[in-house]
Amino acid sequence: KLANIIIADKKNDIAIIKVNQALGPIPYGIDSQSLSVADEVFALGYPLRASMGDELKYTRGDISSKSGFQGDVTAYQQTIPVHSGNSGGPMFSLNGCVSGIITSKHRFAENTSYSIKSKYLINLLQEKNIYFKTSCELKNEKISEKVTKLKKYIYIIEVE
């Protein structure tokens, strides 16, 4: 096995996995601060790999609402264009910290997607006493430099 599940939160569709390979120091933290409407955010992921290829994709948008689908307060609504393959991937604030986890998109609205707020990820990590960084070391770098550094830590996870 390349990874093991440490803890899962089925209600919020989050799982913490331990990768059985050293990745080195991670250059991003998890932001405990709530985002505001109009804050810029971006996602990194592997959408529609069969047609779009295996290269990591960058998409950018804004926070549209501090609640998700049908008023779900555990999620944000954002304008990041996402597709199958983005789910489970990080949503970053422009400072380079994880601010959410991409969960879905609205089937009938263009560029309307949702992510679980990072505070639910933090709760899960704290429940198992798992250390996580809160500092955003990349906040002063250009977005292209952030993406270059972050892509080394974004992986495709396939379950057999």
Description:
It is a single chain. The chain has 160 residues and is an alpha+beta fold. The protein starts with a strand and ends in a 10-residue tail after the last helix. The strands form two sheets. A six-stranded antiparallel barrel has the order 3-4-5-8-7-6. The chain has a two-stranded antiparallel ribbon with strand order 1-2. The chain has three helices and eight strands.
If strands are numbered along the chain, what order do they take across the biggest sheet?
3-4-5-8-7-6
Find the structural class using helix and strand composition: alpha+beta
Mean pLDDT, nearest integer? Answer: 92
End-to-end C-alpha gap: 11 Å
Give the total of beta strands.
8
Model regions low in confidence, pLDDT < 50 over at least 5 residues = none
DSSP helix fraction: 10-25%
Q: Bin the strand percentage.
A: 25-35%
Q: What is the CA-atom radius of gyration, in angstroms?
A: 15 Å
The helix-strand sequence is: EEEHEEEEEHH
Largest sheet: 6 strands, antiparallel, barrel
The helix tally amounts to: 3
* Basic shape: globular
In terms of topology, how is this protein built?
Elements: E1 3-9, E2 14-19, E3 40-45, H1 49-52, E4 57-65, E5 75-78, E6 90-93, E7 98-105, E8 113-117, H2 118-127, H3 143-150
Antiparallel strand pairs: 1-2, 3-4, 3-6, 4-5, 5-8, 6-7, 7-8
Care to give the gist of this entry?
The chain is of the alpha+beta class. The protein has helices at residues 49-52, 118-127, 143-150; strands at 3-9, 14-19, 40-45, 57-65, 75-78, 90-93, 98-105, 113-117.
Pick out its properties:
3 helices, alpha+beta, 160 residues
